[in-house]
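WARN  no MSA supplied for this record, continuing single-sequence
INFO  ligand: 2-succinylbenzoate
INFO  echoing inputs
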Amino acid sequence: MELKKIELFELWVKLKEDFETSFGKTIERPAILIRVEEKNGEVGWAESVAGEGPWYSYETWETAWHILNDFIIPKISKEEEIDVEKFNEMVSNIRGHNMAKAGLEMALWDLKAKIEGKPLWKVLGGVNKNIVSGVSIGIQNTTDELVKKVSMFLDKGYRRIKIKIKPGYDIEPIIRLRKEFGQDLPLHVDANSAYKLTDIELFKKIDNYNLLMIEQPLHWKDLIDHAELARHLRTPICLDESIEDVNDARKAYQLGSAMIINIKPGRVGGFSEVLKIHDFWYKIANRPVWIGGMLETGIGRGHLVSAATLPGVKYPNDISASEKYFEKDIVEPPWILNKDGTITAPEKPGIGVEVMEDYIAKNSKRTKVYIIKP
Ligand code: OSB
Ligand code: MG
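INFO  complex generated
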């Protein structure tokens, strides 16, 4: 495809309620939105998931803007023709900054699908049109509040509950949820790297509560300690932060660090790497994946939904309906949950929803237009 224009928007979105993890609370989050337009006027959109601080990863919205503005866009602008499958190679001289790269890469995938007149999920090789949704529930002030939230989400139809844990808020909420909802509640915990291998006795206790998985318990760079922990537990370990590319997945497999990977397109630099990780972990290692979230707006959510249709996605995803996160989303229609706890991947081209362009243009804190070819 031949690009005519790239635009960046910095939009801050308020969450319905704050989302607390072991690394802090998020109330309002920045979304760097990327709009690409090709020579015939077709448009693609995506979102960079870099956060308000360097907690989940070292990237922030400011570093994503900087890397896009000063390195990625100048590089891409020099290309006559862009083949989205070669995008990663084109920016491979930029070390890291996967969230910045993923923003533009995914906008190009949306554009490619629109040019082909196909839904993005089909272009990616997706097979399951109805994707299964879970919720990720932040750390609550009391376990009573947690129980209320879980009941509310189960009533809506969500098929799995994930709770965030941190030292001092871990075994107690697990015991409480098992007591209230029984052994059959599909439950898992996410520590966002808050523990050390020396906490192994705690994990041996957690091991008795029939969790689907324990997500990213230890340091985000440490595959060896995760492998050691895995040897002492029956509960599968799922890696999130530790897997930034397919090579990390290979290492995790060889070391035995995890049974499951939570794939987030933003964390791994976009869809080309999503597909590589998916194909390695599912087709070669024969292990399951699922799609994680970063509290995306309806734009990023569309990309997540597309990824979740891939055949190796065997657990419910952290892809909830728009109304879980926002009073009002920035796409039409918003993402809704079906009664059976699924979200339906649209048949329209690209991510399959309309982007509220006027709202974004009016409400962005900062915008920038890059004319590639006048
Ligand atoms: O670790 O999965 C995580 C949100 C922000 C940063 C990290 C994580 C999360 C979530 C939210 O768990 C998932 C969602 O978007 O619903
Ligand atoms: Mg996680």
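The longest strand covers residues 3-21.
INFO  checksum written, moving to next record
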